[in-house]
Amino acid sequence: MPLENNMQTPNHFVGLCGVLNQGMGGVTMIYILLGFLGYLKYGELTEDNITYNLPQHEIAPQIANIAIGIAVFCTFGLQFFVCLEIVWNGVKDNFVKKPKFYEYIVRTVIVTAAVGLAVAVPTIGPFLGLIGAFCFSLLGLIFPVLIEFVTYWDVGFGPGNWRVWKNILVLIFGVLALVFGTQTSIGDIMRAYMPPDSDLPVAIINGTLGLAGNASLPSNGTAFTAR
Known about the structure:
It contains 7 helices and 2 strands. By secondary structure, it is mainly alpha-helical. It has 3 domains: about 1-45, no CATH class; about 60-120; about 120-195. It has a two-stranded antiparallel sheet. Strand 1 and strand 2 form a beta hairpin. InterPro entries: AA_transpt_TM (IPR013057). GO terms for molecular function: L-amino acid transmembrane transporter activity.
């Protein structure tokens, strides 16, 4: 919405051939193509970033890494604009004097936080899985269902209340995706930062979510069972 509101012709943002569909459609096709070809080539050995599978001593992979760096540098401002617009609109009333100065401070803080997160979490794959599972379930499934319930509450849900049954199915699927996707992602994060032979992630996840199953953990030479 911030991008649409700042366009010269906002009505061109949506629609079948709008800016949103054209841009996201092209990006989606590129992601699908790279994911398919990468997995077709490397199979189960495919890394979170496909460039990690490429031989780094060759010129072509080095050019690819440079191109990725340039792409991030050139597109970070566009992606950053939405975050800045939301944050700055929420705090700008507190900085009536010298608004530009404080806006640059907000920009610096957000950029520093993003860079600090990237440095602190070099293994970003599991965290992206957690963000995807959490945000996809809430923003893509659960929240739209709740919004549709509120929207059609006074006008009705159609013949046989078909929207109610449809939303119930979507809501169940969203909750399952949220629970099990988050569980799997947290387990992957813990395994990424613990010794490979440790069973602690499995035990903690099973114990936290109350899932059935046993995990025997060595503790000072004594094995115990977590449920």
